[in-house]
Design goal:
Layout (H helix, E strand, L loop, with lengths): L1 E2 L4 H7 L7 H8 L2 H21 E6 L2 E6 L7 H8 L2 H21 L4 H12 L1 H19 L4 H12 L3 H22 L1 H22 L8 H17 L2 E2 L2 H16 L16 H25 L2 H12 L1 H22 L17 H25 L6 E2 L5 E2 L14 E3 L6 E2 L3 H20 L4 H17 L11 E2 L11
Antiparallel strand pairs: 1-4, 2-3, 5-9, 6-7, 7-8
Helix pairs in contact: 3-5, 3-13, 3-14, 3-15, 5-9, 5-11, 5-13, 6-9, 6-17, 7-8, 7-15, 7-18, 9-10, 9-11, 9-17, 10-11, 11-13, 12-13, 15-16, 17-18
Length: 479
Amino acid sequence: MTLVAPSSAVSAAAHPTSPTAPATRDRATRDRAVDLVRAACLIAVVTVHALMVGASVSGDDVVLENALEGWDLFTPFSWFAQMMPLFFILGGFASATHFRRMRQRGIGAADYVALRLRRLLPVPLAAALAVATVLSAMTLTGLSPELVATAGWRISQPLWFLGVYVLCSACVPLALRAHERAPRCALAVLGGAVLLVDGVRFATGIDALGFANLLFVWLFVQQLGFWLADGRAPKLRLAGWAVAGIVALMLIGASPVNLFEALNPPTAPLALLGVVQFAVFARLRPRLAQWAELPRVRTASDVINGTAMTIYSWHMPVVVLLAGVLLGVEPLLAEGTGTLLPVPLSAEWWASRPLWLVAAGLAVAGVVALVARLERRPGTVAAGSASGSGAGTGSRADSATIAGPGTRDFAALSTGRATLAVLSGAGGVLVILAATGALWAWLVGVLMLWIAIQMTRPEPAARSLPVRQNANPIPSSTP
């Protein structure tokens, strides 16, 4: 990778020099280009998922399917619409700047992880509880068990991101330390692990082995975000070699050609796609920063990023429920007036997609407006100083306390408790996905997410001061 002149925003975020008022610090260190692209990636993800929801009636049967699976252009579409690597790169950038700032204040690794979980998990917990409630109601009203199971599975599919992001966030302190000591070596080790897993899976034919790359692939692209935080990016020539690597791996059958299918399990082309997207973003970053400063663009970006976890957690339940409502009112249509649910990929279906996307967008926006308060509830932000010689690395006495202006004093969380919280949160998601969205799995997942949140709660000290906290799935470009 080649050094690129870092912007003042990046330099300030990566190497803060003095405490300032929050609003002043936000204006000084916020990277508007990162915020803009992160918001655009989230909207792209929601749009693709809305297009994938295919609900129709075939005879007396209700069909709920991935509408795009049979589309002839689905594979080339995936080459341009697969945005998850860039999403994780921007997350790595924000996590690096966030943790460096907290570390400078004396906050250890375990407390950083606990704070991230307290911000990340309450919103999806509420969404999962709502899904479990609706699935229970569907079961009690006597709807087809197959339909309930299919709805539970379709709603659960985007949850993989939450589980992986929890694990990647927990690894930030260790991964960032490795990057700061030997950035090329850290990236090479993760890249080698990705190739090793793919190689063993390809040689043995055991696809289940590939799920180890749920960690290695996304840790690799998160690590690229650390380079971005340092003001470094690959040249377009390296991106060209990455494209060649993607093509070669696809030609030998080591990865699906469709980059959405390459998510399950993740394969090396997704890591290489991250290099490509990183290089393109770096090249376009100055222009993007200019666009991001336009008042309307800035306002839209702030609104989307300020409710990002709410949008991600609730968009699939809302869209599937909207399809269910249309299924319910379909028989009420007068004969000859057409259908609300045309067969997926038919000409009528494509013609109705703009209206469907508008309806889905409005439904998601309405629900987000109602529940977004969970993402901005009064909470605690560890922004003070820690006692103990190892506070900067997370190795400190359990009796250390964190205190500071605008924070709640609390006993520092132990590494073991933070680890169990991470495993409980990620495990809750894993249970739901492994059971293909069965009702019992949603109930177990809700319980495990709740336990994870409870385990991150510090022991209150004498005083507390409510502050605002944001639960973005990717932390803000300034903490």
